[in-house]
Design a protein that fits this description.
The protein is an all-alpha fold and 91 residues long. The chain has 2 domains: 36 residues; 54 residues, no CATH class. Helices cover 71% and strands 0% of the residues.
């Protein structure tokens, strides 16, 4: 939804309630996706593996080192896609 279309929703009570329902649906979708992917345990594991503080990760300050990204890609491939990396990468 564009910003212009969103601004038009504030003129009518029924349209505003539709916007609120749309935002609530988006919030539930994001919550269920985070629950499905186990993002809190995953973020804690990545923080511990890379040596970052979990509080920094939760506050979205970013990792202290760029090791988070390869670890996230590895765990994403293993958990979601079911792909294990080839041994040639690790040797």
């Amino acid at each position: 939804m564009s910003a212009r279309a969103c601004a038009g929703k504030f003129e009518d009570a029924a349209a505003l309630m539709g916007l609120v329902a749309h935002a609530e649906t988006d919030a539930w979708l994001a919550l269920s996706l985070a629950s499905y992917l186990n993002l809190l345990p995953l973020s804690r594991q990545l923080s511990c593996l890379s040596g970052s503080l979990w509080s920094r990760t939760l506050q979205a300050r970013g990792p202290a080192a760029p090791e988070h990204l390869p670890l996230l890609k590895l765990i994403w491939n293993v958990r979601v896609k079911g792909k294990w990396p080839s041994l040639q990468i690790w040797l």
